[in-house]
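Researcher: Good morning. I'm working through a list of sequences from a screen, and I'd like to move beyond sequence-only analysis. For each chain I'm collecting a predicted structure so we can compare shapes side by side. This is the next one on the list. No need for commentary yet; just the structure.
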Amino acid sequence: MKLLPDASQPLTAELAAEAFAAILDGAVAPDDIQHFLTVMSDRDETSIEITAAVREMRKRMKTISAPEGAIDVCGTGGDGSHSLNISTAVAIVVAACEVPVAKHGNRAASSKAGAADTLEALGLNLDRASETAEATLADLGICFLFAQKHHPALAPLAPIRKAIGKRTIFNLTGPAANPARVKRQLIGVARPDFLPVYAGALELLDYEDAMLVAGDEPLDELSISGPSSVHRLGQSSTRITPESAGLAQHPSEELRGGDAAYNAAALMRLLDGEAGAYRDAVLLNASAALMVAGHVHDWHSGVEEAAEAIDKGLAKALLNCWVAY
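Model: Good morning. Structure tokens for this chain:
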């Protein structure tokens, strides 16, 4: 077993790379991993450490080919909001706008229903979706990259992370380790104050464009209930509100989710045109995704295009084709 460096102080790029390589290769004792990850989380991870962990994960993940311009929309999780599945709905709506979406996700960790749970409740066969991910992305413009299937090196860490009982660096690295190797991405971060650190990591990676967002609640997505922080690579951080995109504010309680069946039913009502907080939250975040994709250039245009994809039945038709694939 290899010994890990002292994590109480920030690690150099070389030390961090060696440490995460050893962890992912199963060369470190579980107790040592638990201590290392906990200490690092307690002091807050650095951009260099996040970058090193992402690079080591990318070396070991099972990849798929993706069309030019494919994006992902996902968050770090851990915001404790237990909301409806916003990024999952955004993925379907954005793909219906003819932007390929390689949705990376997993089962719930801190909420009642993660992306995988809700998609399964909608009728998507997760095993088949994994097997056909490359084909559905090429044919339909959407796929689900089930983290359990594409990151086998993380499987032995699951009980360790569960024992830690709070977020670790692997919550932060997940979005940036997309198996389709997308170059453009909308990433929600549960801590607004952490956006500059996360942005620093992405600037060291090979992105064409990325937008990092955090609602003030805190929320790992753009908030429909108030202001959010936005950091786009190569640009200054900004603040936006729902009104910035021509949308109304809604109380956060109106986005409260439940189990997978509950969230799936809400998502179907959304695709059927139901108005309200869920629709507006999805439109706001879909607009951000369409901007990252270079498909639109302002918030209002993105909202209009996303709304059209819902109201014309394009998003629901896409979901039905995906489930039947």
